[in-house]
Every structure is written in C-alpha cells, then in structure tokens.
Specification:
InterPro entries: SEC_C_motif. This is SEC-C motif domain protein. It comes from Eubacterium cellulosolvens (strain ATCC 43171 / JCM 9499 / 6) (Cillobacterium cellulosolvens). This protein is mainly α. Helix content is 47%, strand content 4%. It is built from 7 helices and 2 strands; from the N terminus they run ααβααβααα. The longest helix has 24 residues, at 18-41. The radius of gyration is 23 Å and the shape is elongated. The relative contact order is 0.11.
Length: 168
C-alpha cells in the first residue's frame, strides 16, 4: 500500500475517538509549523531527497512526512508523485512562495500564514494583497438577473419570456 493511503487511513479515520483525533491533528500542526519555519527561513534553498531522508532530516516519522508532502504538494513548482510514493521515492520541496502563502490562507491555517518568517519574504502590503486575492478567488459573483420583460440577452429583440425564458 502506498504511503499516502496509510497516512489517510490514520488521519481521516472516522472510527477513531474524537479526542485522540484532535490530539493527533494538534500534534501534526505543531510539527508542520516547525517544518515550515525551517523552510521559510531559507526559501531559495530547494530541499530534495527521498521521503525517508526528509523524514530523518526533520526528525519525524515517514507517515507524518507523507502528510506534510500531501499538504504542500499544491504549492510546489513541480508536484511530487504523492499517490504512489514510497519511502524511497525522490521528492522535492521547491515551492512557489506566493502560492504557498495563498494556499495557507485558503486552508485557514493562520498558525502558518502568520509565521514571523514570512516577514523576511513579503512586505506587510504584499501579504495583505495575497490574502485579499486568495479570499476573493473563492467568492462567487452572480450576474444581474434577467427580468421576464427584459430584452433577451441572445439579441433576438424578443422579450426574454418569449425567447430563452419560455421554458423556465
């Protein structure tokens, strides 16, 4: 079985006691925060290695590293093959800083996007701009509703109710 499936069976197990699961996630989030602090301290350095080597580097177990790799994957310049990853799979943590920040905002991970390490990467204005941009990207804007007696938007010249609004 691939590492990702093992990670998911532990992290998202619906039969696990809620308190145990909450403690599991709190522990994971602290580990995750520590790894991001190290990565953001030197954002130009591209960290590479096998899953096992990276787990050893950050002093965590392989499954926790798998969870971290799953979380950061959408922020990487080149995605890792997380679906079929094993301990010996070569992976890279070459992340796009703006994408990583926005993904942290999207995940509502304030403990990550408020890390002090971001201050050396982005100005407060840039962080606010990225934050607002990410928040707006999830906002759905509905167009103006067409009234029954308005001209049909297809350009036929007929009222909407007699044209494309006929069957509504």
């Amino acid at each position: 079985m691939a590492l990702l499936q093992d990670w998911q069976s532990i992290a998202y197990n619906k039969e696990t006691d809620k308190n145990k699961l909450r403690n599991f996630w709190q522990n994971y989030f602290m580990i995750e925060k520590g790894i991001y602090q190290k990565l953001l301290a030197n954002p130009e350095e591209v960290v590479r290695g096998t899953v096992k080597e990276l787990a050893d580097k950050y002093e965590i177990d392989v499954l926790t590293m798998t969870g971290f790799l799953d979380g950061i994957n959408d922020s990487l310049k080149v995605k890792n093959p997380i679906e079929e990853m094993t301990e010996d799979t070569e992976v890279s943590l070459d992340f796009d800083t703006e994408m990583l920040y926005k993904n942290m905002v999207d995940a509502r991970a304030d403990w990550l996007y408020n890390l002090t390490e971001w201050d050396a990467i982005f100005t407060p204005e840039k962080k606010k701009e990225l934050y607002v941009e990410q928040k707006k990207s999830g906002t759905i804007v509905k167009g103006k509703k067409i009234g029954r007696n308005d001209p049909c938007p297809c350009g036929s010249g007929k009222k909407y109710k007699y044209c494309h609004g006929k069957n509504k």
